[in-house]
Amino acid sequence: MRIGVDVDGVLNDVAEWHFAYGSKFCVEHNINRGFNPTGYYMEDQFYFTAEENKEFWRQYIFDLLLAIPPRPFATEVIHRLRQDGHEIFILTARDNQYLTNQYNGMSDFYVKHWLNKYNIEYDGIITGTNKKEKCINGRFDLMVEDKKTNVDMISKIIPVFVFDAPYNQTCSGTNVIRVYSWYQVYQEITEKFAPVEII
What we know:
This protein is an alpha/beta fold. It has helices at residues 14-28, 42-46, 50-67, 74-83, 97-100, 107-117, 131-137, 148-154, 182-192, and strands at residues 2-5, 87-92, 124-127, 142-145, 160-163, 176-179.
């Protein structure tokens, strides 16, 4: 199978990272407007002003791009999937303003650097915000994703494994399978998407 794999929220736990770094930033800058765990972006989660959001990413952009660790066993499972004959394509939007406004054109560089740092294997990298179109053009059989809007769109054409997060609890449908770990991803692929033997 040709499998599309997102980066933030799938290969890493970006929700946990957001909550940890966002709350640290709030304490350091005396910001206390409450917390919304179902928000997807920092400004939605911590009710940042545009200026606060810009300052947050100025301080912490490279902690996310370079230092955030992968989820447990992500590297191991992707290696096993490729050993089993599946093709892995990294499909990432990284469309937040911290990249589009401040590091335009550098997304591919940082993604490759991070994947290489943690020995995450892949057969190709595709960047862009229209993931449904990228899945069609890439002839993907399956997508592993976390962002609700992407799950909703992509699941209309192929099955999607949605990595559980507070911001995607309303994702559902016959083509949506909720997953909580990388070894669950492996088990689901092995059991539900194994090739049919023709006798």
